[in-house]
Amino acid sequence: MSEPFELETQEENKGEASFEDAMRELEIIVKQLEENEVPLEKAINLFQKGVTLSKTCHQKLQKVEEQMDQILREDGTEEPFQLDKDDQ
Questions:
Q1: pLDDT at 79
Q2: Are the C-beta atoms of 71 and 79 separated by less than 8 Å?
Q3: From which residue to which does any coiled coil extend (predicted)?
Q4: What pLDDT, on a 0 to 100 scale, did the predictor assign at position 11?
Q5: So where are the chain's domains?
Q6: What would be the CATH architecture of the domain defined by 15-71?
Q7: Cα dihedral 45/48/53/56 (nearest 10)
Q8: Consecutive sets of 10 residues in the chain, 88 residues long: mean pLDDT of each?
């Protein structure tokens, strides 16, 4: 059986973590900090890394949201996405 096809994004090619990877790492950091057995210096470093990961995730979500605000027409051109009154 063949391996599943994975589309590489430009971000992954640049070495940036994917949204999913950043979220996974953030969850690990939160879990470590919640255990309360982390030395203060390490806790501060983990917290700073967590803030950075949180900002990264937020930026990636904003980018996707902006992309979702556009819809492709049949001719390949983009137009703003708007819900009809009936769809709301």
A1: 74
A2: yes
A3: 16-74
A4: 43
A5: 15-71
A6: Orthogonal Bundle (1.10)
A7: -140
A8: 40 68 96 91 96 96 83 72 63
3-state secondary structure of 70: strand
* Residues in contact with 10: Cβ distance below 8 Å, sequence separation at least 6, in sequence order: none
> Bridge partners of 18?
none
Helix (H, G, I), strand (E, B) or coil at 6: coil
CA distance 8 to 11: 8
78 with 72: CB under 8 angstroms?
A: yes
User: How crowded is residue 22: how many other Cβ atoms within 10 Å of its Cβ?
Assistant: 19
Instruction: Say which residues have a Cβ less than 8 Å from residue 33's Cβ, sequence separation at least 6.
Output: 43, 46, 47, 50
Structure tokens at 68: 């979702």
